[in-house]
Amino acid sequence: MIDELRKLDDYDVPAALDVELSLFTAALALYVDLKAQEQLSAKLDALEKARRDAAEKEAYKDAATYASDIGKEIASRYGERVSQAARELQKDISGKQVRSYQDALKTFEKMSSNPGWKLNGKDAAAVAQALRALDKATLGDNMTRLGKAFGVTGGAIQAQGLVEAAATGFQTGEWKPFLLEMESAVLGKIAGSAAGAMLGITLGLLGVTVTGGVALVVGGVLVGLASSYFDPEKVDQINNWVMDAVGA
User: CA angle, corner 82, sides to 164 and 106, nearest 5?
Assistant: First the structure.
């Protein structure tokens, strides 16, 4: 049969077979085209993944460098003790679990209940003014950027509420709003390490410019606030050396 068909010219091929051959040719062309598109799509997906991975790696390197620079600034502004406490918080940060607000508040009250942490009216007003003078959008970006260095993989931190709660805390000694604001800024709004995001918030706020003994208290309080959420043992240590340093 095949041999007989081969002997036929175009005019002798039955119409039905001609249609069938045309359909087969079209189907084969479509298959080849779809296969080519599938392979092209796979290559494009691989290239896009490689681009994202490279961008993420570069962003992490940039964030890590920025965190290192911030660490140097903290040592310059707040002294070696505050700087060391901040560095110690960074150890295994991405694996640390965030405690509840109630547990964090109970821990932080070990510090806030001590009158040695209270700033006088003039100093408290100066710190609050310095905090409120910070550019909130830039600060939020910096906090998000710092969080990336400590295991945060997505989401952005909004600084407005955090700054206002911190300013109020230094003025009134009431830190419940700040602890709630810190929890609210992180839980359910970022991906990755919540503790890393909280550390990013703390380091960002430590960018505020203060001096002398006030700097030691401000730095100790901010690091203590973060510690109360994910490193409670650190609160006792901070409380002891800061209070000793200010002579309380």
Answer: 60
Q: How far is CA 93 from the centre of its chain?
A: 12
DSSP annotation of 93: G
Please give the backbone phi and psi of residue 152, each rounded to the nearest 5 degrees, phi first. Answer: -85, 130
**What's the rounded Cα separation, in Å, for the pair 241 and 248?**
10
Closest CA to 68 of 93, 87, 85: 87
In the CATH hierarchy, which top-level class contains the domain 52-247?
mainly alpha
Tokens of 54: 């490279």
Tens digits of per-residue pLDDT, 118-134?
A: 889 999 999 999 999 99
H or E element at residue 108: helix 101-112
Task: For 37-59, write each residue's pLDDT tens digit.
Answer: 877 777 777 777 777 667 667 77
Tokens of 16: 């039905």
Report the distance separating Cα 182 and Cα 157, nearest Å. 10
First-to-last C-alpha distance (Å) of the chain: 108
Please give the structure tokens belonging to residue 231.
């490193």
Q: Within 10 Å of residue 3's Cβ, how many Cβ atoms? A: 6
Distance CA 83, CA 99 (A): 23
**Alpha-carbon gap, residue 204 to 134, rounded angstroms:** 10
The token duo for 32 is 């080849």
C-beta of residue 232 within 8 angstroms of C-beta of residue 97: no
Distance CA 136, CA 121 (A): 24
User: Residue 167 in contact with residue 194, Cβ under 8 Å?
Assistant: no
Question: What CA–CA distance (Å, rounded) separates 242 from 248?
Answer: 9
